[in-house]
UniProtKB/TrEMBL annotation, chain B:
Residues 7-115 form the Acyl-CoA dehydrogenase/oxidase N-terminal domain. It comes from Actinomadura syzygii. InterPro entries: Acyl-CoA_Oxase/DH_mid-dom, Acyl-CoA_Oxase/DH_mid-dom_sf, AcylCo_DH-like_C, AcylCo_DH/oxidase_C, AcylCoA_DH/ox_N, AcylCoA_DH/ox_N_sf, AcylCoA_DH/oxidase_NM_dom_sf, Mycobact_Acyl-CoA_DH. Keywords: FAD, Flavoprotein, Oxidoreductase. GO terms for molecular function: flavin adenine dinucleotide binding; oxidoreductase activity, acting on the CH-CH group of donors. Residues 226-375 form the Acyl-CoA dehydrogenase/oxidase C-terminal domain. The keyword Oxidoreductase applies. This is Acyl-CoA dehydrogenase. Its cofactor is FAD. SUPFAM superfamilies: Acyl-CoA dehydrogenase C-terminal domain-like (SSF47203), Acyl-CoA dehydrogenase NM domain-like (SSF56645).
Length: 337, 382
């Protein structure tokens, strides 16, 4: 057993961080709310160019043949920078569904080339039982990927796309004409769900880590009573609690990144469920606490802290809302005794 | 990342599981410490004779010469097998291993690891709790002996112990942290008085130790004179980890017992109960993965440092969550007789859980450490 990122994965982390820092220095994430998709497109094409969008797609299907851990490293960095791209929805959730639930091959290759595929969910952002009606991480012109009633992933043109005003303007939802979807939940679909949970957990970990860094930087500089506010224990302890949440999210998320891909399906689901449940709740807490440390500026549109908190809530709710992983875990515990 | 067992690890796990299947006692762990102590100690000694204790200690001192990953596997499988709680004293061998002389290691480590001799930790004093460096117990050198005078408190298992790893001030003129040394004190030495402290749950797990003109051989100093603070910090960093102290399997057992209770109810559990169970299970998954990550760092050669405060806060939170959950479930179910039939035992565990955020450095001290040493926030003025 060995639990650590490889040297290559550390380079991947640095690369993604640098790409985000560079592009988001020119125009901040908040711009993506009203620039007609320009920033999203720039960042996305950069990720495509670096072969990061096709990480989960095997090489013989046109992808980069990376691991879920690689994809999580990227997702975490994107979360850290609040990057307004549909990475979790397209490069992780949709790709996993196509790959693990016997989807058609061609869309996988097109996805690697940058075509947008939104994963299709139900009204509560859960995995649909009979019809899928909401495209998650939707962008203009995206196709949808859903689990069809026969248990295979299928691709759909999205008719009557009707964007939804939801909590997170950087990761959009869109109501689409209902697509029949399956209750048949075979092993492939279960694994795809575990991968989606883990991907969301990685993004959530990144959102939280960014909030922690912002809070700590601010607490070191901002002075009140002639001292940096970071020298007050009341503030220090808020930051320490954020650190515990971030590091524990990282532990369970990277553990899940291995398990969801390689472990027997029951274990894969169990660890991924733990990651999604913990990283989701932790990210919401950390982003809230981050705003508290920032003080007044944290609750304005001038700061991006609210965008983090928005992203945390959206991804905490994604893929079966925040309860689905908990119900799975409870079921397993009761089964065992 | 590769969380699969290597062939050696898989072999180890297989042998361990087979052994546990034959050797985990069928009778339940007694609720009262006076009965639980001999039960725990007997299992620990049995486990040692089976070759499953001190896995990552060198063979010369009674260990198994394996690595941290085997410790992780042990922890996992003990939990799965519903084994008795381990004595949470395994970390006390670490300072002897790192700082002891050859002679000290030979003399003290084998019986310590075999639980033939029990050790305790004499750090806190009535005036020196969170501010450990304020300790006042003195050690003075006089013809071939050290003479100790002072008063230690909150010593876990002090009333059961044979030896105490004790901190005392050896240079009253030095800056606080610099004038402290670590000693090996036999608790049957003349002048030592041990008085048990009864905890809120009735257990006599802690003790006070009074030292009145206690003379111990000069050779009983651990490490160099006035180097005790470094040793103390090593000890607490190990103490704050979940694997060394064997808490992970204990928490797994708590969760199984809670689940068994829920399942035994005539009515199917409601959503709130399932959610709470799910959260507890998620917390255990987090703890398990966090331990694996910590141990992998250990394999790479990094001794535990200030990040062990994360482990400690996590461990405390899991224990307090589990014990509070058990109480709320027992209280809220409609089944007749629940309040009267088992709440007291869980209440004792819950009370004990409150100690988790106090001993080994309070939760507030852990947060100070994280803020200043890991996050680099300015030193606090209080």
């Amino acid at each position: 057993m060995h639990f650590a990122l490889s040297e290559d994965q550390r380079i991947l982390q640095r690369t993604t961080d640098e790409v985000c820092a560079e592009l988001l220095a020119e125009s901040p994430a908040a711009d993506a709310r009203a620039d007609g998709g320009a920033l999203r497109a720039r960042l996305w094409s950069k990720l495509v160019e670096l072969d990061l969008v096709g990480l989960l797609v095997p090489e013989h299907q046109g992808g980069a043949g990376g691991s879920l851990t690689d994809a999580c490293v990227v997702a975490e960095a994107l979360g850290r920078h609040i990057a307004p791209v549909p990475y979790v929805g397209t490069a992780i959730a949709a790709a996993a569904l196509l790959r693990y639930a016997d989807g058609p091959e061609e869309p996988l290759a097109r996805l690697c080339g940058g075509d947008a595929y939104s994963v299709l969910l139900d009204e509560r952002l859960g995995h649909p039982v009979d019809t899928a009606t909401v495209a998650f991480d939707w962008v203009d012109g995206a196709r949808g990927v859903a689990l069809s009633p026969d248990g295979r992933a299928t691709v759909h043109e999205l008719a009557d796309a009707d964007p939804i005003i939801d909590v997170d303007p950087l990761h959009r939802l869109c109501r689409v004409r209902a697509v029949p979807s399956g209750a048949a939940f075979g092993e492939g679909a279960r694994r795809a769900r575990a991968v989606a949970w883990t991907g969301a957990a990685a993004l959530l970990t990144g959102l939280a880590d960014g909030a922690l860094r912002q809070a700590v930087d601010y607490a070191r500089q901002r002075e009140q009573y002639d001292r940096p506010i970071g020298s007050f224990q009341a503030v220090q302890h808020l930051c320490a609690d954020m650190l515990v949440d971030v590091e524990t999210s990282r532990s369970i998320t990277y553990g899940a990144s291995w398990a969801a891909e390689h472990a027997p399906i029951d274990e894969a689901e169990r660890v991924a469920a733990g990651a999604k449940a913990h990283a989701g709740a932790a990210a919401v807490r950390v982003c809230e606490t981050g705003i508290q440390v920032l003080g007044g500026i944290g609750v304005t549109q001038e700061h991006d802290a609210h965008l983090r908190l928005r992203g945390a809530h959206l991804h905490h709710a994604a893929f079966g809302n925040s309860d689905a992983p908990l119900m799975l875990l409870a079921g397993r515990v009761l089964e065992k005794v | 990342m590769d969380l699969r067992d290597s062939p050696e690890e898989a072999g180890f796990r297989g042998r361990l599981c087979a052994w546990l299947k034959e050797n985990v006692p069928a009778d339940p762990e007694p609720a009262v410490l006076a009965e639980r102590w001999p039960y725990m100690r007997a299992f620990q000694q049995h486990l040692y004779r089976g070759g499953w204790v001190a896995l990552s200690y060198p063979e010369q001192v009674g260990g198994q010469g394996l690595g941290p990953m085997e410790e992780a596997i042990l922890s996992e499988e003990l939990g799965r097998a519903g084994a008795p709680t381990l004595l949470p004293l395994g970390h006390l061998g670490r300072p002897l291993l790192s700082h002891g002389t050859d002679e000290q290691r030979r003399r003290y480590l084998p019986p310590l690891l075999a639980s033939e001799e029990i050790w305790c930790q004499g750090f806190s004093e009535p005036q020196a709790g969170s501010d450990l460096a304020a300790l006042r117990t003195r050690a003075v050198r006089a013809d071939g002996v050290w003479v100790l005078d002072g008063h230690k408190t909150w010593t876990s298992y002090g009333a059961f112990a044979d030896f105490c790893l004790l901190l005392a001030r050896t240079d009253p003129d030095a800056v606080r942290h610099r004038g402290i040394s670590a000693f090996i004190v036999p608790l049957d030495a003349p002048g030592v008085t041990v008085r048990p402290i009864v905890l809120a749950n009735g257990d006599e797990e802690f003790a006070e130790i009074f030292l009145d003109d206690v003379r111990i051989p000069a050779a009983n100093i651990l490490g160099r004179p006035n180097d005790g603070w470094r040793i103390a910090m090593d000890v607490v960093n190990y103490e704050r980890g979940a694997v060394e102290t064997g808490y992970l399997p204990k928490f797994e057992r708590y969760l199984s017992e809670i689940a068994a209770f829920v399942k035994a109810q005539p009515a199917a559990p409601d959503r709130a109960t399932l959610r709470a169970l799910g959260e507890a299970a998620a917390a255990l998954e987090v703890l398990r993965m966090h331990c694996l990550r910590t141990l992998s760092d250990r394999v790479s050669g990094a001794p535990p440092g200030p990040e062990s405060s994360i482990d400690k806060l996590l461990m405390t939170a899991v224990e307090q969550r589990l014990t509070a959950l058990s109480l709320s479930l027992l209280t809220d179910t409609d089944a007749p007789g629940n309040a009267a039939s088992g709440r007291a035992e869980w209440f004792d565990r819950y009370l004990y859980g409150r100690a988790g955020s106090i001993y080994g450095g309070s939760a507030q001290i852990q947060r100070n450490i994280l803020a200043e040493r890991l996050l680099g926030l300015p030193r606090s003025a209080g």
